[in-house]
Amino acid sequence: MNRARLVRIIGTYGVLIALAALVLFGYLRYDRFLSYYNVMTLLRYNSMFALVALGMCFVIMTGGIDLSVGSVAALGSVASALASPYGIVPGLAAGIGAGLVAGLINGVLVTRANLMPFIATLATMQAASGSALLLAGNQTVSVSYESGFTAIGQGSLWTFPIPTTIAVVAYLIGSLVLNYTGTGRAVLAIGGGEDASRLMGLRTDRVKFLVYVASGGLAGLAGVILASQFGAGQPIEGVGWELFAIAGVVVGGTLLTGGSGSVVTTLAGVLLLGILFNVLNFENGMGWISLSAYWQSVIRGLFLLTVVLLQARLTRRRVGAL
Amino acid sequence: MTELPRSYADRDAVARSFDLFGFLSRYGTVIALVLLVAFNLAFTRNFATMQTLNVNLTQVCTIVVVAVGMTLVIATGGIDLSVGSLMAISGALAPMIFLGKILPIGSIYLSVAAAMIMSVLVAGLLGLFNGWLVARFRIQPIVATLVLFIAGRGIAQVMTNGNLQTFRVPEFQWIGLARPLDIPAQVIIMAVIVAAAAWVLKKTLFGRCVLAVGGNERASELAGIAVSRIKLAVYGISGLCAGLAGLIVIAINSSSDANLVGLGMELDAIAAVAVGGTLLSGGKATIVGTLLGALTIQLVRYTLLANGVPDAAALVVKAGIIALAVWLQQQHRG
Question: Helix A162-180 and helix A36-61: axis angle, to 10°?
């Protein structure tokens, strides 16, 4: 097999291979690793991150970035917790609506005011965080348990966690949109070369606007699940989510320069990072080593470093600054 | 083709008429600062006191120190997300040394000196690591520094096992508490760093190279500038600044909490740089602007808080100011 081909295969399937290897390792080493309880808990908890990473993936593919997702999720969780006494639908609508508004602002700032995505979403991040604190009155907001709102995060559909179902559906839609619609192809085209895309007649501003709105909406949805799963709207949650989402997207093999990427490998990237901690917990449980929870971020960082170095070696693509 | 390209002609026409956006993007921060001071003099009680000045200056110090390093990084077209985490590492390491947890040093002065030098140096080395990733592997700065953003705080937490370290060591805490000539020590440190960095950026070969790299990396390389070395240096300096800021924070607090030291600092520093008028795409930078930017953001926050607006609302206002400042910058360039 020649080198170029090997490089391409590792670039595309590397994360899937790593994921399979990690699962196999866990299965062989720990008794309950593939137990129903462990798998479902893992999937339920990581659904929020998967949703945020999906939106981030689209934004990054256009060559942008969305730093606001964490605080937007926090805002969504507060909004949905406040609306939760009125039922599931109002709760969902409030959370997603708050996210969409934030995404809309990002979209306007990036496409109309021509701000760099990085700085526009940084501003929105602070604004969303402030709004969440204001809405919540500087404390966590309990959700209503009578209205059935908690089913979104805690319930199961045919023994499958509802948040996971939501995430799977979202990824299916995301994958279809990316691969089979004009908008999806335009996302990649814009990331590959925005000026060229515009000259080709693509409505670049509209597509960019859409990805930021979608990212906001998905972050809002993640916030709804957060509130529902933990029984409270949490204005100070979501710190650092944006960077974990970016890490998931990068580990999934999507280039941060835009123009290439895949929805499925992003999901694999998020799962890989999630399972890594699960393995760590099992390892602690076996008593051989004792790594505190703080090691998680160190390992996450090392993992990101490895992937980034591999990508830099493998893709040999000259990347511009920022 | 004897005719000028249209865009040049347009630009000339704009230059002749009064360039509102250019004016605002150049002096906007100063105007905002003056307006804020005027507003406070009129409406905020007890504004014109030494105490108000000291409160604002001491609060803004760490942001300015970090933002100076950030300005240099941004001037090369990069960004450093890891500063907050590096602050946490240096803030965690210093007490471990001067409290004698790592190795016992007899003299308190020696151990404090060792603590300060070691922790700032470690932060600087980690900054060099960022620079190495950016320069050697051509990894985008935002990703390269993301590694230490995530891992760095984890390292600090692992070092201290997440525990709060409290101490009462005047030999160390002068850096945040002493007031020679009634001026807080950290304000003097800040002033020295700002002056030094402004001089370096304006007057030295290194400073010109930093701006050249940010203006056009390829051209700088062809012109014989050691681009990689410049990048290594700015990330290293940014690390040193973050390390120093970490020390100031723990000295003020008399304690070091790896979970909290420097949390969100990268955003404050970037905001100060952006509001100060440094181009986020690199090539044009102003250290004094960064100082004014940090002061403006701090004063906005103070004004709102002093007039009974909740802190959360101040965040929203801050966001608006950042967006507006960068938008003005953009109009001028476009």
Answer: 30
